[in-house]
From TrEMBL:
Coverage span on the entire protein: 207 to 546 of 791
Protein name: M4 family metallopeptidase
Assigned protein family: Belongs to the peptidase M4 family.
High-level lineage: Bacteria, Bacillati, Actinomycetota, Actinomycetes, Kitasatosporales
Domain Peptidase M4 intervals: 8-161
Chain ranges passing through the membrane: none
Length: 340
């Protein structure tokens, strides 16, 4: 049966009022986006995956009678669904428009998003097995982990899995995590959403610890108390969310340069005193270089030294080996202690 494509109205929790591509007709709409590979958003109603690999619940696809989704209120059952669906739309569009990649597998087929995972579950994750993004509801079940950057981070894990395949431990694991933070930040800026403007912070909207702080800081990763600003021998032995630091820092420095800077009203500081000075290449160039390095040159065991070579090759391809961009890519690596 033919189902018309509708433009629904989503009142999101984190990103204001957004347009959602939905399916159906008056009285019976579904949160299914036939314009983006059939991406659907489902409600797990607090179910969890069987840790022994048995049941992996798909959840129930969200439905609505008037195509106006949620009120945006924290705790409204549809709120997490609206934000997750919006984040998936944006991330799909970003990869398609900026990197000419159509979906995680570049085959036009969407993954899907599950929300309301577990009870006060304070995490979100990508899982190859279900080919899906999954979001917990956070503290009080009212802080779902569904902001633009978190959604784009999780979907990007799917892209990494289907390109370089960076193994999720050691230095390659840190690069895997950084890839998700870097491209999530690129999505957040690209979205140009006035309620969730671009920044070099990860998770600044979800208040995961109820202290108003983001999860990660790309201008100075060590501000979170555990991530590393620069590479050192042995960084592969720490958790991948901390060994991502030097690459996140590289992205900030390559994009914005060293020294104090304000972007979208937020102040950043990556002083030259503790690193070599870096001139900026701009965020769009840095993201294009990272994506090309990821999808063309990195492999499952790429380490920091390899990431430097991969991004330099990508910069040479895109901008030329004698371009200022190429030189500044190398300088940004030197600033985080990754050298030739
Ligand atoms: N939220 C985490 C992440 O995507 C989940 C994990 O540790 N795999 O990195
Ligand atoms: Zn991650
Ligand atoms: Ca952010």
């Amino acid at each position: 049966e033919y189902q018309a494509v509708k433009n629904g109205v989503g009142n999101s929790q984190y990103a204001g009022q957004v347009t959602l591509n939905t399916t159906g007709s008056a009285g019976n709409y579904s949160l299914v986006d036939s314009t983006r590979g059939g991406h659907k958003t489902t409600d797990l109603a607090h179910a969890e995956d069987d840790p022994f690999g048995g049941n992996i619940p798909v959840g129930t696809t969200f439905t609505d009678s008037d195509d106006v989704w949620s009120t945006g209120a924290p705790g409204h059952n549809q709120s997490a669904g609206v934000d997750a669906a919006y984040g998936a739309q944006l991330t799909w569009d970003y990869y398609k428009n900026v990197h000419a990649r159509t979906g995680i597998r570049n085959n036009g087929v969407a993954a899907y998003s599950r929300v309301h995972y577990g009870d006060i579950y304070r995490n979100a994750f990508w899982w190859d097995v279900c080919f899906c993004m999954t979001y917990g509801d956070g503290y009080y079940n009212t802080n779902p982990l569904t902001s633009i950057d978190v959604a784009a981070h999780e979907m990007t894990h799917g892209v990494t899995s289907n390109t370089a395949g960076l193994i999720y431990s050691g230095e390659s694991g840190g690069l895997n995590e950084a890839t998700s933070d870097i491209l999530a930040t690129a999505v957040e800026f690209w979205a140009n959403n006035s309620s969730d403007v671009g920044d070099y912070l990860i998770g600044e909207k979800i208040n995961i610890d109820l202290d108003g702080k983001p999860l990660r800081y790309m201008d100075r990763p060590s501000k979170d108390g555990y991530s590393k600003d620069s590479w050192y021998s042995g960084i592969g032995g720490i958790d991948v969310h901390g060994s991502s630091g030097p690459a996140n820092h590289w992205f900030y420095l390559a994009s914005e340069g060293s020294g104090a800077k304000t972007v979208n009203g937020l102040a950043y500081n990556s002083p030259t005193s503790d690193s070599l000075p870096v001139n900026p290449i701009g965020r769009d160039a840095a993201a294009r270089i990272w994506y090309r390095a990821l999808s063309t040159y990195m492999t499952s065991n790429t380490d920091y030294a390899g990431a430097r070579v991969a991004t330099l090759q990508a910069a040479a391809d895109l901008y030329g080996a004698s371009s200022p961009t190429y030189k500044n890519v190398g300088n940004a690596w030197a600033a985080v202690n990754v050298g030739p």
